[in-house]
Amino acid sequence: MEIRSASREETEALGREIACSLSPGTVIAFFGDLGAGKTTLIQGIAAGLGVKEPITSPTFTIVNEYHSGRLPLFHFDLYRLSDEEELYEIGWEDYLNRNGVCAVEWSERAPTFFSDCVRISMMRGETEQERVVIIEGGGKEFEHFGH
Length: 147
Prior knowledge:
Blueprint: E1 2-5, H1 8-19, E2 27-31, H2 38-49, E3 63-66, E4 73-77, H3 85-89, H4 92-96, E5 101-105, E6 118-124, E7 131-136
Parallel strand pairs: 2-5, 2-6, 4-5
Antiparallel strand pairs: 1-7, 3-4, 6-7
Helix pairs in contact: 1-2
């Protein structure tokens, strides 16, 4: 499904809406260029989960953990990964077993890990603020967004 967001605020609101459908163990793979709005959407998801801490992209640490919401949020940024195997080295499988939500930016860097999960592709729209968000996978609980 394709959703258009006209502003940062709308992108964050979409994230809050998505958070309502998340359950323990959900993996969301984000795809899109730099500046496409991935972190903004994740900030909305975190707010929807009730996370109290500010959400920043974990570009240098690879993963940031947030435990103050209704589910733990594990925010990954794979931009600096040199190969997929590094995901094992940082304990990917342990994160999958911690009953939280894994939100993974730059999933393109480890494509074999993200074939069976919620996939969110983001791109710039026709204006500076507009974003096009394409949500795939996730089953029936994700079919109502943007309606």
